[in-house]
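This section describes the prediction task in plain terms. A model, or a person checking by hand, is given the sequence of a single protein chain and must write out its three-dimensional structure as a string of tokens. No templates, partner chains or ligands are provided. The sample shown here is typical of the held-out split.
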Amino acid sequence: MKLTILGGAGMRTPLLIEGLFKQNDLHFKEVTLFDIDEERLSVMGRISRFLVDKYQGDFILSFTTDIKEAVRGADFIFSAIRVGQEEGRVLDEQIALKYGVLGQETTGPGGFAMGLRTIPVMLEYSRIIYEEAPEAWLLNFTNPAGLMAQALTTYGKHKKVIGICDAHAGIKNSLCKFLKVPHTDLQVTYFGLNHLGWVPSVYEKGVDRLPEILDRYEHLSRISHTFRFFEPELIRNMGMLPNEYLYYFYYADQAVTNILQSNQTRGEQIVQLNRPLLERVSDLVQQDRMEEAWADYKGTLDARGSTYMSRETTGQIHDVHEEEETVELSFEEEGYEGLALNIIRSIANNKQQILTLNVPNNGTITQLHNDDVVEVPCLVNKNGYFPINIGDVPDFALSLIHPVKTYERLAVECAVKGDYQAGVNALTVHPLVPSFTSAKAMMDDYLTAHQKHLPQFRDKNINV
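The expected answer:
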């Protein structure tokens, strides 16, 4: 089998390569890293090659800046590209905050701006994959994952697409710790959109343990910091467990206040961590001091992960795990790289698994269109994915799902067609944007700030 990684110069690529050696039932003959940033690709590629040697891998690792060469003959293609790099993310966040609106990179205007830059590139890659690797499965982790999956399934030439996100896996891991149950014994149901989902039941041995979890929610929040973002009253009132990104909707004003109080966005922090790390690691790689490069890389990414969502929820940068109760758990699932490889295992080895994916609705959630991409549990095997029926979802959740899905449809149309009005409309209907006035102002600012990455708007006679 051949695996191709789009965005191979990304900071998480070595983690994915390391993850390959935790799967003894997957056998790749070739792994190819692709990126347009040749210098950065060389650094991440050499670290990845070091890991292949370290773990005595028996596959050929290559890296290239030629997209056709990268995907040609691939069986699975993993996408995690970032158009505009981390500096683009900083602009996305800062522009929204200028209008008192949350600028998180996947939720609201920040995700919208990232989608405008990224969707045209992913659609071009989709066309090339269709021509060079028509039988390949494209596993998309490129953010904003919901918009990408919607764009690829609606407008992409290549149709064998699965959108993935590890948020559901994180929820399940937390519940396994809390209940002290192996993840293979727990069925955590789920429905919604990417970064906008709820858990309506948690089954162990045929018994729904959600009522017990809700009763003991304070204890759960001590086990897992992400549940600490929400007040027990809110959770018990809605009778479901939340995806962590719902914090940005249920506490939007507080999130903006906290970010402003911290005097730094998450994107700015990432730039401050990543750029020096790349310089240090590049120097070490050039000197062939690979063990030191790997140790520096791993330590910095661990530190980066430990502060995730800290500023948005508290106004301060701190280790979010510092107050968690310690629970011994040897059966915890891996992060996003583990989820991607689980999908590959299910398809390549016909290992039947139920995994939560971003796929076309096709009646899974009654109140949405068939071609709306939703995030739901799916049975995955050698024949692909098969969504598990959800039916009607509660009005409490639908009150957010409907406007956000309307926003997604309009945002994709804007990104694909260079349709200015569709973009303004998309931001106007988004629950986090307070008015048409601020929507239009942000749209204008994004077009100006990211002009070089938005060719679809050229020659449109838009005055900004």
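For orientation: The first strand starts at residue 2 and ends at 6.
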